[in-house]
Design a protein that fits this description.
Low-confidence stretches: 1-35, 281-286
Order of helices and strands: HHHEEEHEEHHHHHH
Number of helices: 10
Radius of gyration: 24 Å
Shape: globular
CATH topology of the domain at 78-218: Nucleotidyltransferase, domain 5
Helix content: 40-55%
Largest sheet: 5 strands, mixed
CATH class of the domain at 78-218: Alpha Beta
Number of strands: 5
Length: 286
C-alpha cells in the first residue's frame, strides 16, 4: 500500500464527494430504501474504482469469505463466552434500530495475561485483573437453548479450557469437557462480570451500525467473519492484507450465483449433457 500515490487534496475531495453525499443521505434519512442506498454507493464506487455497485459488492463478499482460515486453531486457556443481540433490517424500510428485528449472536474471546501474553486459569470465582482480550469467535445462533450454545462452544473452544460465562441455564452441560466458571450477574452490570466479551460485542455493534448502517440477516455470517478478522489482527494491521491473500489461496473459487444461493442454468445444462446415454434407449428425435 505504501507504493500507492496520494492524490492532491482537490482531486481527492472531488472523488470523495459521492461518498459524502451517500453518507449524508443515509444519516439524514433521505435514502429510505436499499435501492436508493445502492444508487448512492454505486455512484461513489463507479467514480472511484470504475466498476458498478454489483461488481464492488461481489468483490467485497469474496474478500470476506477469504478472511477465515479453514484450518484455524480452537480457542484455548481461559475463554469468556456470552451471547448478545444485534438489530437488523426488515424489508426495504429505512433502518431504525428501535423497530428492527433481532439476530442472536454467540461470542467467545480468550482472556490473556498482560505480563506473559498467555492465558492462565485462576481459581473459580477469582477476578481476572490485569488481562486483555485475545482471539475472538462470533457466530449466529438460532436461540439461547443449551443445544445452540453447546454447539457453538464445541466448534470454537478446545476441550479442557476454562469457560467463564454468566449464570445462564444452558451452560452447565459443558462441565464434563470444560472447566466451567460461571458468574452470576445479578444487579451488577454485565460488562463488569464479563468485560472482554462485552467489549467485543460493543465494538461489533458500533461497527455494524456505523459502517453498514445495520445488517440484514442474509450474509450476516460473512460480516461477522470480517469483524473477527479485523479484531484478531488489530495489533498487526500491516500484515492483514498479506494474510488475507494467503487465506484466499486455500479457498475454493465462489461465483456470484454461489454467493447469493442461485442455481446456474448453465451448470444444470452441462450436468444434463454429461449424463450417460443408455444404448438400449433410442435417442431423441428432437
Amino acid at each position: 500500500m505504501s507504493g500507492l500515490r496520494t492524490p492532491d487534496l482537490a482531486h481527492r475531495r472531488h472523488r470523495d464527494a459521492p461518498l459524502e453525499t451517500a453518507s449524508d443521505d443515509v444519516v439524514s434519512g433521505r435514502a429510505f430504501d436499499d435501492d436508493a442506498l445502492q444508487r448512492h454507493v454505486g455512484a461513489a464506487t463507479g467514480g472511484q474504482l470504475g466498476v458498478t455497485y454489483k461488481t464492488a459488492w461481489l468483490l467485497t463478499q469474496k474478500l470476506r469469505r477469504s478472511m477465515i482460515d479453514p484450518n484455524r486453531e480452537l480457542l484455548e486457556g481461559v475463554v469468556e463466552v456470552d451471547q448478545t443481540e444485534i438489530p437488523f433490517r426488515v424489508g426495504d424500510a429505512f433502518f431504525e434500530p428501535g423497530n428492527a428485528g433481532k439476530i442472536l449472536i454467540a461470542g467467545a474471546v480468550e482472556v490473556i495475561e498482560r505480563d506473559t501474553n498467555k492465558s492462565k486459569p485462576r481459581r473459580k470465582g477469582a477476578k481476572y485483573l490485569d488481562t486483555r482480550s485475545g482471539r475472538l469467535r462470533l457466530a449466529v445462533i438460532a436461540d439461547n437453548s443449551a443445544a445452540s450454545l453447546e454447539a457453538f462452544v464445541r466448534a470454537n473452544v478446545k476441550p479442557g479450557a476454562t469457560l467463564i460465562t454468566d449464570g445462564h441455564a444452558s451452560y452447565p452441560g459443558l462441565a464434563g469437557d470444560y472447566r466451567h466458571d460461571p458468574r452470576v450477574v445479578g444487579v451488577m452490570a454485565a460488562n463488569a462480570v464479563l468485560p472482554w466479551s462485552h467489549r467485543a460485542f460493543a465494538l461489533m455493534k458500533r461497527w455494524a451500525l456505523g459502517t453498514y448502517h445495520g445488517l440484514r440477516r442474509k450474509h450476516v455470517d460473512t460480516y461477522l467473519d470480517e469483524f473477527v478478522f479485523r479484531y484478531n489482527r488489530r495489533f498487526y494491521r500491516h500484515v492483514s492484507f498479506e494474510t488475507m491473500l494467503g487465506l484466499a489461496a486455500n479457498h475454493a473459487p465462489a461465483s456470484y450465483r454461489d454467493i447469493v444461493g442461485r442455481a446456474s442454468p448453465r451448470k444444470n445444462q452441462i450436468a444434463c449433457d454429461t449424463l450417460p446415454l443408455h444404448i438400449d434407449e433410442p435417442e431423441s428425435a428432437g
